[in-house]
Structure formats: C-alpha cells, structure tokens
Design a protein that fits this description.
733 residues; Rossmann fold; D-amino Acid Aminotransferase, Chain A, domain 1; 4 domains; eight-stranded mixed β-sheet; six-stranded parallel β-sheet; 33% helix
C-alpha cells in the first residue's frame, strides 16, 4: 500500500534499478481518511509490480517551501483538488512537469462555469445553465421551471438544492457568489456515470444521493454507442481521455451534468488494473519525450476574459443548431402549419392564433392547420373548417410567476414533461412546413426546447415567433431576455419574428434594443382586426343578443378573469345611465366565489346581466356603446377594430405591459385610461355618464391590417410570390 511521503526534497533524483532508471510517479494526494476506500492504493500496487516507483505527496500535512517545489518525477497524478494541491500543481505545470490530468484542465473542471462553457463550445447536450450574483436573480429562471442550484466550485454535493418556485428559492440559505444553477430534469430511473479510460467507455448506474459504499459502487451497464460517443466528446473537449461523465436521462434525452478528470471509477470492472495500465503507458510515453496523450485533441478551454469583456452568458449548447439553418426542399402540395399557444393565464394567445388560422384559411392556397393549445381553452372557441387541435393539459401561472397544474393532481415538472412530450410527438408526426410560436420563444416552462432542436435538426420546418406589441417595460425585457437567452434562441431557432402591432403606436425593436441579432427577421404585421371573427360567432351571437333588453349597452370584459375581480365588482356596483343596460363577462378562470358575488349583485339590478363565459365576445363588442375592460392585447384589438368608446383599467402588477399599451393609445386619443389604484364604482359611474362625443376613428389612426398581411408573410417564408396587399411592414419602416 501507499506509504507516507512528504514533498520531494531538493536534489532527490530518480531511483536506480538493475536495468537503469525506474519510472517515478508522484501522486498529489489528500490526507489519509480512517475508512478510505480509494482506488489509488490498488493502482499503486499494480504500478509497483510493473517496476515503477510510486510516491504519494500529501501536500496538506506539512509546511511547504514554495520556492523548493521542482520537477522530480516522470509523471504526476493530481488526485487531491484542494486549494493547496492545485497551487502546487500549478507550480509544477509552470516548471514543465507532466501531469496526467493537466493542471489547466483540472482547474477548469473545478469551476462549473468554465466547465459548461467548454462543453457548450463542444456542442455537448446539457441542461440550460445560469450564473447569477445572488439568488434573487434566479427568480425569472425558476419561474420558467425547476432549477438545481449548486456551488460553482467543486468538490461539492451537500450544497445541491432543487427549487421549484420563487418561494423555495427565497427560502434557500445564503449562497456565496457566484450562484450556479441549471434547469432541473427529473431522472428516468438511476443516475448514469460514464467512465472513459483511454479508448474504453464503461457505464455504472447508481442511486442519488448514494449513502452507502455499496450504493456508490452501483451496477455496471454497457453504454449505448450514443452514450459512449458522448463520453468521448466530453473528454475531447478538454483534451483528455481519462475522465468521468455524469449523465441524467430524462424522457429519452441524455444531459451531461458533470465532468471530472480523475474520478473514483467505482463500479468499473477491474478498475485498478485498467487505471494503472493507463498511467504506466502515459509515463512510458513521457519518459521517451512523446506527448502525454497520443494525438490528443486540442482542448476547447475558454480564453481569459479581456479587460473590456462583460460577463459572458452561460447557456445550453443545443446539438445540431447553427446560425445558418439547414433546409430540405419544401414538400409539394398543400402546406402544413402548426400554431402553438402557451396558455397559462387567459385566452389571449389562443384567440390570437385562432384569428391567424382563420386568415390563413381565407388565403390561397389554404394550408392544413393544427393548433396546439390547452384543452379547455381550445375546445371553447369556434374554429373554421380545416383546423384541428392537439390539446395540452393546463398550466396556471401564479401571482409570483411560478407555474402549477391547473387541474391535474401531479407535480409541475410531471405536467410540463407531459406537455413537452405531446408537443414533440405532434410536430414529429405532422411535419409542418411552418411552426408559429406565440409569445414565448421556448414555450411555457421552456417546453419547446427539444421540439425546436428536433425541427432544426430535420431542417424542413420554418419557425416563426409571433409577438404582441408590448412585452413588458424596456428594463425588464432587456434583463429577462439576457437572463433567459431569448435573443440567442431567436437567432438560432427562428426564421422570422412577426410583431402583431403598429410601430407608430409602440415599436418594440426601438424600445427594447434586444433584436440586434435578429433585425433582418423582424416584420410588423399591424394589429389584428377582429371583425372577421363575427363569422364564427353568428349562431351564438344571435341567441345571446336576443336575451338582452333594448337600450344602450355598457359592457365590462376582464379577459380570462383570473385577476379581473376588482374591475368586475366595481362595474356591477356603478350606477348605469337611465337608458343603458350593463353586461359583465366574467371569464373562464375567475374564482367561483367572485362569480357568485357578481350573480347576487345582478339579481338585485334588473338592468345588469352577468355572463360567466363567452367563447367569442366579438358580437357583444360590436353591440356595445361603451366598453370597460382591462388592457390585454386581444381586448384592445377588439375595441380598436369596432371603434368603440373604451375605458381601459390595465393590469399593473406583476408587470406593466397593459399600462404601457393603454397609455400609448390614450395619447393617440383612442381610449380613456384609469389606473387600478383609482378604480371605484364612483369612477366608473362618472365615466359612463360623461359625454364622449363621436366614436374614435381607430381604423384610420392605427394599422389594423395584420390579418391581411400574415398570409403574405407565410408565402414569403415558403418562397411563394407575395401580392402587394399582403406585404408586411419591414423593420426599416
């Protein structure tokens, strides 16, 4: 077994043997542990049997003269990764020593941030990765899905924590800077560890966290060719072929979550002999002046940042993605279009995509359209012939930004995994020519990531990101887009960005400054004119309007209703003008107790009617003389399309998107705006009684030509000739 040995003393030469000099191998080791079951004693025994002189160098056990450190071994093995051992290894490296696991590689692998930058450069699949100065900065990331938070430095393990919500993030104890986190992917079964020893790859499965020695040994398995290739790619990224690679498999996808340069090789058959043979062969090469690794790949280590470099984002390196998308020939015959709606809050995304589907089906030639959206939403809306659905289980976005299943009694990660699988399978089977994604570049809880990988790999689907006019305030957009890598996602995955707005009202490219990498892809369509939706609401509209008494109509709409209680309750308590009837539409997601209060108010007021849900409110908007509403995109489009007097009471928390939109339209004289802090029955009574003059000429002031232009944009993507009436406003407009 290994004997105690201090640092080699100055002047100590090589050991002499009968046949000349023996190879001398120094192991930079940590302190002895009472129950140490390290592989190294067995490795040392095998090396000694081969005639090598093996010397353990326990750098932590005595005072070291830094200036006395010099190269006195043919080969060093860096087993201890403590600060002092790394400093000695750095000194040996500078002096030209051969280190089996070279100091620059070991130093890089000790830092998770640098490690995953190298893996990113090598195109290795890994979880989405984040770096923050403090825990609170991870809030936008955890709002998109669970995270696993780790120390940025290795070794560690006790500090690993999985957080699934902003509340769990806030409950974590303080973490030293910088904070390292990755997207958490639940494991399919046990952890998988891959070990690369020269040309051989070994696999071991084990439980996590492993508590006993037997659990740490795990069970051997034969890696698939794909996993073996992945292990070799990880080694090649750092220029080594002796390493361990930790793999998490989730839903058939493998993610690399750790790489180590000299692991314990627990569970590898005959591991001590194999590692000893590897070390001895490396020492033989060094002894005759050959490279440490034969034909070693140039490692992709990150350069030192320059003085002017800002903090570099660490993002997932997605396989097969390039900045110049690979394309196959588009199929002949009828085109196929997939429309994705994230859902979560109200009906805005699905209504917008329903209008786009209607416009595309009114064009020539008509495409085949599949809509992907939450089941209860999509089943509630009238759709034109030629559209079918793939339905998703529903997510709910909470006030703190976290996501929870709306109906199913499962974990949020299980629900997201289910949605992700449904989406990916649908796109794989349908093979759309164009996929239009609404609002979120990677979907709700990043559920589109693998689907986008898939369509980019196959190369036959054009991807479009559709954005509303206002996303958020500029500072928040710039921060969240930087943190979530949205600009890079658009650059790498999307062929076009359609902005469903008029830049004369709000210009997101100018306001946000986040589209620099995708400027050539941006098109302004104009707002979406909602009047054509009347065609699909005719049957419902006739029966609905027949129930209303004659007179002027004051209409209150609150979108999905999830946060519309205050506005609806103020409206039912307001005094209606004598010749006016009132209608409130609660929305599908308004809490039942709020709806019950509204019903009780309506029972006491004969000129007040409460509708709990309308699949298509366009007919009521057309019938209304005045509209009181929140400031969501679709409601505003309806108000502008039908040129109605409107009082907008926008949502201002947790974001101010509606407030920004309402202010811009107010400045154009098209709507009135009431801050929710000033909302009261009296304020609504006063507005309803006010003489507002003729209706606003919205269609002459605002571009509402989006639905006429979108078919032309689709034709442009597919390389079909575009008529002049269908041209979209380009970025330069």
């Amino acid at each position: 077994m290994l004997v105690q040995y201090d640092l080699p003393q100055p002047g100590l030469g090589r050991a002499e043997g009968a046949g000349g000099e023996h190879m001398r191998i120094g192991f930079l080791m940590g302190p002895n542990a009472p129950a140490d079951r390290s592989l190294m004693p067995e490795v040392a025994a095998f090396l000694t049997d081969r005639g090598a002189v093996v010397e353990p160098i326990r750098v932590s056990e005595r005072l070291i003269d830094v200036f006395g450190v010099r190269v006195e071994h043919d080969l060093y093995v860096l087993k201890d990764k403590s600060d002092v051992a790394m400093s000695i290894a750095a000194s040996l490296h500078e002096a030209g020593a051969a280190v089996l696991n070279p100091y620059p590689v070991s130093a890089t692998l000790r830092d998770r941030i640098l490690t995953f930058r190298v893996l990113q450069s090598a195109g290795v699949p890994m979880p989405q990765t984040f770096v923050a100065s403090h825990l609170e900065q991870l809030r936008p990331a955890v709002e998109q899905g669970p995270l696993i938070v780790k120390s940025y430095r290795r070794p560690s393990g006790a500090d690993v924590a999985v957080v699934r919500s902003a509340a769990e993030l806030a409950a974590l104890p303080p973490v030293g800077e910088p904070v390292f986190a990755q997207r958490y992917h639940p494991r399919d079964g046990r952890d998988r560890k891959l070990y690369l020893i020269g040309a051989e790859v070994f696999g071991v499965t084990r439980v996590w966290p492993a508590r006993t020695y037997e659990e740490k040994l795990g069970e051997p398995f034969t890696p698939s060719p794909e996993l073996a290739d992945l292990a070799r790619r990880c080694g090649a990224a750092f220029g080594i072929d002796l390493c361990g690679v930790d793999i998490v498999e989730n839903d058939g996808h493998a993610y690399v979550v750790n790489v180590s340069s000299l692991p314990g090789f627990k569970g590898v058959p005959d591991a001590a002999r194999r590692v000893a043979e590897y070390i001895y062969t490396a020492a033989e090469r060094v002894a005759v002046g050959a490279p440490l690794l034969p034909a070693a790949a140039e490692p992709l280590l990150p350069r030192e940042p320059g003085a002017d470099d800002g903090p570099a984002p660490v993002r997932s390196a997605t396989p097969h993605v390039t900045t110049e998308p690979r394309r196959h020939d588009i199929r002949t015959g009828q085109r196929r279009v997939a429309l994705y709606s994230p859902g979560m809050v109200g009906f805005g995304h699905i209504r917008r995509n329903a209008s786009i589907a209607q416009a595309l089906l009114s064009s020539d030639p008509q495409p085949v359209i599949v809509m992907i959206a939450e089941a209860r939403q999509i089943g509630s809306l009238p759709m034109p012939a030629g559209v079918d659905y793939v339905t998703l289980p529903a997510l709910r976005k909470e006030a703190d930004g976290s996501r929870r299943p709306r109906f199913l009694n499962v974990s949020d990660q299980d629900l997201v995994a289910l949605r992700e699988s449904v989406i990916r399978s649908a796109i794989e089977a349908f093979e759309p020519d164009v996929m239009i994604v609404d609002h979120l570049p990677l979907g709700a809880a990043r559920e589109l990531t693998r689907t986008l990988d898939q369509v980019r790999e196959r190369g036959a689907t054009r991807c479009v990101l559709g954005l509303r006019d206002v996303l958020q305030d500029p500072a928040t957009v710039r921060r969240t887009w930087a943190e979530q890598g949205h600009a890079e996602v658009i650059r790498d995955y999307y062929d076009a960005v359609w902005i469903y707005g008029d830049p004369a009202v709000y210009d997101p490219v100018r306001e946000y400054g986040t589209f620099d990498q995708a400027a050539a892809k941006v098109r302004y369509t104009g707002y979406l004119d909602e009047r054509p939706r009347l065609r699909f609401a005719a049957a419902q509209a006739d029966s609905l309007l027949a129930t209303l008494p004659p007179g002027k109509l004051a209409l209150c709409v609150v979108g999905g209703g999830q946060d519309g209680a205050a506005l609806a309750e103020a409206f039912v308590q307001a005094d209606l003008p004598p010749d006016t009837i009132g209608v409130v539409v609660t929305g599908l997601y308004m809490p039942e107790e709020t709806r019950e209060r509204l019903r009780r108010w309506a029972e006491r007021r004969p000129r007040l009617t409460v509708f709990e849900f309308l699949s298509e409110p366009a007919a009521l908007i057309q019938r209304a003389d005045r509209v009181v509403s929140m400031g969501g995109y679709n409601t505003v489009c309806e108000v502008l399309s039908f040129e109605k007097h409107a009082l907008i009471v926008p949502r201002v928390t947790p974001n101010i998107e509606q407030w920004i939109r309402a202010q811009r339209l107010r400045d154009l004289g098209l709507v009135d705006v009431l801050h929710p802090d000033q909302l009261s029955p009296r304020a609504l009574t006063e507005w309803l009684a006010r003489d507002l003059g003729p209706p606003p000429a919205s269609r002459r002031r605002v571009d509402l030509g989006g639905l006429t232009r979108i078919p032309g944009l689709l034709a442009e993507l597919l390389g079909v000739s575009v008529g002049p009436a269908a041209q979209a406003v380009k970025l330069s407009a």
